[in-house]
Amino acid sequence: MSAARDVVDATGAPVVAGTDETAGVANWSLWIGGGLVGLVVVMALVSFAWTPYDPYFVDVTNRFGGPSPTNLLGTDQFGRDVLSRLMVGARTTLFVGIVSVGVAGVVGTPLGILMGMAPAWLHRILLRANDLLLAFPALLLAIMFAAVFGPSTATAMVAIGIGTIPVFARIARSGTVQVMSSEYVLAARSAGRRGVRLAVRHVLPNIASLLLVQASVSFAIAILAEAALSFLQFGTPSPIPSWGLMLFQAQSVLAVNPGLTVWPGVGIAVAVLGFNLLGDGLRDRFDPRLAGHQ
Amino acid sequence: MTDPTPHPTSSERPAPGFRGDAHTRRGGGGGDGPRDDGPGGGGPGGGGPILEVVDLVRSFRRPRTSLFRSPGAVEALRGVSLEVRAGQRFGIVGESGSGKSTLLRLMAALDQPTSGTVSFRGRTVSGVPERRLGFLRDDLQVVFQDPMGSLDPRMRVADIITEPLVAQGHGDRDARLAELLDAVGLPDGAGRRWPHQFSGGQRQRIAIARALSTRPRVLLADEPVSALDVSVRAQILNLLADLVDAYDLTLVFVSHDLTVVRHLCDTIAVMRAGEVVETGPTAAVADDPQHPYTRQLLGAVPTLQGALAGRDAATLARRARADDPEEPS
């Protein structure tokens, strides 16, 4: 009995932990991460309405133009405006992140909750199966997909999403196991709640913060994965602007104009750092006891 | 756990408040006797127990510590048999680890026994799939120990209290909510607030309101005041006692605190190491304990055995309090 109580005490808190206690403490990760992510989001949103130039407009007379009042970040080897391409590239980056994290979350979360609520024997089997999938690298899966379906942004993000499913399943599972051992779930069960309704009413709201943190971290990983795939020509095909692709194209003229690699590189770094910091900040916010870990 | 000495009252008629022979038998009935069970109440034979536990065993597997050795098991319950009659206030006392909370969870069908049966009004509830336990969920409710942990932090109080009604598909929830808030002494506006905005005592009132929402016949309480400040314990206990009277409830009250059980219950079962060692009317058990363990509980004497068994100062202090005649009960 006392053992069961301890479990509740130890696990009630992370899901219960409110925001009141930490309100006074400066959460730099959250603000800096939020700021960097905000920058990328604003860039992508503005690109829908306005870019300095058409990102596809080729102007051969203006190749390798350095930063100037007309082209703030210069032009590439085809004379295309780098800032415009960077802005539209942010769109691609965020789109890939949203879709792949969406796929992973929508499929992985129910799987994880199912795992956490399943009887012990089924739980053990599903957990091992999940571990097996977790060991398979997402990037390899994406390259396989690109080989079969042809390289495209859609292929890349679906492959990254599928590769991230086990990550979400694992997080959702551990959260569910904690919630299921709490007294409020016992109370709900004695009230007659079970199955899907128990999961939707009690488990999901209480693991939502865990999932949000994981989403932010997975978002960063997805951005990096898409950039890597595009760089390797397995992702977004030319001429669609993508930061990874821009990096690849700049790399081919590295000897002539090394400056071109800087901007897509900065873009990727800012987005990845932003989402990682945001994830850390959110975690500290929801569960102050874990601050500084991981 | 057979009492080696023949018991002076063993020749009297067997008490209805217990069964089995692994523990000390006591004479006398179950408190002031079974009340009117109402239409449809009671098990077969009308006067049968409302809640019956037969030879209940529950063992938990220990976590594996070695790759080659079997991890073994902890026996939380070792053949417990009990009968609770309608209208009784049945107290279960024992130190922590004696299996009383495990027993309560099995009674509420929140856990499955390793062997043995639990039946409610003559219908078996152990081993029955959840979807066929509707009759139990309506008529038997639980109040848990920790009012911080037993309320979902992401639900408003109104939703918490009416959850059993929603789960069972009952209508007219708003009227019932107002009624329940009034019954447990919470303000009308409490329903719109969140659990963390209430104190421990108030949260336990919320938990009690939830337990009463379906108008159950049996209320199980798992140490409902042990997590509360001493100053609010009496309030919550009196509230429970009043509600049990007002709604003609059968109460099963689990506690490590003999004073509390003595104050509230008419029948006591004493548990130790997964077995019931003594059952009988409160007055008889408390004033004339037969089993050595009950005497020990009452006496709360620090013993070498106790120290070797790992009983700490807090447990002893509780026992001392339980035995203090000066302590208002």
- Helix/strand structural class of chain A: mainly alpha
| Fourth-tier CATH superfamily name of chain A | MetI-like
C-alpha Rg of chain B, in Å? 20 Å
Helix content of chain A: over 70%
Average predicted confidence as pLDDT of chain A: 82
> What is the tally of helical segments of chain A?
10
Low-confidence stretches of chain A: 1-23
Q: In whole angstroms, how far apart are the ends of chain A?
A: 32 Å
Most extensive chain interface and residues per partner: A-B, 28 and 39 residues
What distance separates the N and C termini of chain B? 30 Å
Categorize the overall geometry of chain A.
Answer: elongated
How much of the residues of chain A is beta strand, in percent? under 5%
Mean pLDDT across the residues of chain B is 77
Class from helix and strand fractions of chain B: alpha/beta
In CATH's first tier, which class of chain A applies?
Mainly Alpha
Domain count of chain A: the total is 1
Supply Rg of chain A.
22 Å
Concise description?
Chain A is mainly α and 294 residues long.
Draw up the topology in text.
The complex is a heterodimer of chains A (294) and B (329).
Chain A: H1 2-16, H2 28-49, H3 82-117, H4 120-134, H5 138-149, H6 153-180, H7 183-190, H8 195-231, H9 243-252, H10 262-286
Helix pairs in contact in A: 2-3, 2-10, 3-4, 3-6, 3-8, 4-6, 5-6, 6-8, 8-9, 8-10, 9-10
Chain B: E1 51-61, E2 73-84, E3 89-93, H1 100-107, E4 115-120, E5 123-124, H2 134-139, E6 140-143, H3 157-168, H4 173-183, H5 200-212, E7 218-222, H6 230-246, E8 250-255, H7 258-264, E9 267-272, E10 275-281, H8 282-287, H9 292-299, H10 304-308, H11 313-323
Parallel strand pairs in B: 3-8, 3-9, 6-7, 7-8
Antiparallel strand pairs in B: 1-2, 1-4, 4-5, 9-10
Helix pairs in contact in B: 3-4, 3-5, 4-5, 5-6
